[in-house]
Specification:
This protein is mainly α and 184 residues long. It contains 5 helices and 3 strands, in the order H-E-H-H-H-E-E-H. Helix 3 runs antiparallel to helix 4.
């Protein structure tokens, strides 16, 4: 009976001690895991400059090469078109030339825009991957928005990540030899 009484009196103390140790373990776990995240990974808010990334990486050079190749294709098609309608009267040649040049210029602008869109898509994918890996809540484009004062510029990290990337811009556009068919 004496043993039963000692156990009943110590039960509340054991229960309190157990609760206190569970609470301390939980607090330790919360602080240790958040502390290691802060030390190992930057987190918070970041910003980048797409202009800087384009200029200092190989992407702008790849865009320029692609655009030069497309311009060469367009000029070759224009030359072939000129050869086809050289015998037509001058007013018709001039009209065809104007329409061909407008068509060519529209296609060149569309292709240049498409190339830039693909480049920005590749850069954005790398930024998003870096954001997730480093637990940033948001990454601003400082070229279009004022970056927050507590943000971190990660442009150089992105430039380093995309240094060796070769971008596949897809098939080359085709340039027809013009509007001669309607005059044949």
């Amino acid at each position: 009976m004496g043993m039963t009484m000692a156990t009943t009196r110590s039960l509340p103390w054991l229960f309190i001690l157990l609760l206190l140790s569970v609470f301390l373990c939980a607090v330790w776990f919360i602080f240790s895991s958040s502390g290691s995240q802060l030390n190992d990974k930057p987190g918070g808010i970041a910003y980048v400059s797409y202009d800087k990334i384009l200029e200092e990486s190989t992407i702008l050079a790849q865009e320029n090469i692609r655009n030069e190749e497309v311009i060469a294709l367009a000029n070759a098609a224009s030359k072939r078109a000129e050869e086809k309608y050289y015998a037509l009267p001058e007013p018709i040649r001039r009209e065809i030339r104007i329409m061909n040049n407008m068509s060519k210029n529209n296609k060149l602008m569309a292709e240049k825009s498409n190339v830039r869109r693909i480049s920005l898509k590749v850069i954005s994918a790398e930024i998003e991957k870096y954001r997730v890996e480093n637990h940033y809540s948001i990454v601003f484009n400082k070229d279009i928005a004022l970056p927050p004062s507590d943000g971190r510029d990660i442009s150089n990290h992105i430039i380093n990540k995309i240094k060796g990337i070769e971008i596949e811009y897809g098939e080359y556009p085709t340039f027809s030899e013009g509007f001669l068919k309607q005059y044949e």
